[in-house]
Amino acid sequence: RFRHFLKAVLRNFLAEAQRDSHRLKRGGGKTILSLEVGAIETAGFQSDLGRCSIEELFDRQWVRDVISQSLSRVKSTLEAEGKGDYYRAYDAYEVRGEKATYEKVGRDLGIAGADVKTRLEYVRGRLRQAVMDQVSAYVSSREDLMAEMNELFSG
Questions:
Q1: How far is 33 from 103, CA to CA, in rounded Å?
Q2: How far apart, in whole angstroms, are the C-alpha atoms of residue 36 and residue 69?
Q3: d(CA 138, CA 133)
Q4: What mean pLDDT is reported for the chain?
């Protein structure tokens, strides 16, 4: 699978970086400050290495990226279809992390609580399809797609 290949590449890269950071010729033992944005963005990733394996970190980021890109796609599609309020209901109920009820979200959006439930089901279905579309770009068969979907949502 493509994702397993990427994990192996990442694991080798980090092992080489760890090895090279201790070489005296490369400034081993000294703190190196980087002005590169990429290095700053990966600093949090490398600090998590002590708590999690490389594979776990990769999987977490993979899930975040797939969900984020899929949500963005669903949002723009719904807005283009004139159903932006469907996404706003989903965002208020699922994404923001607030303890919302159908009635509260409905009041905020000016719709009935039952309509909120219907819109949530609609967006969840669209999101599920968007995630499947996203993942299917990286796999070669239906079986691999189902395996990746199970991995994405198993933990």
A1: 51
A2: 25
A3: 9
A4: 79
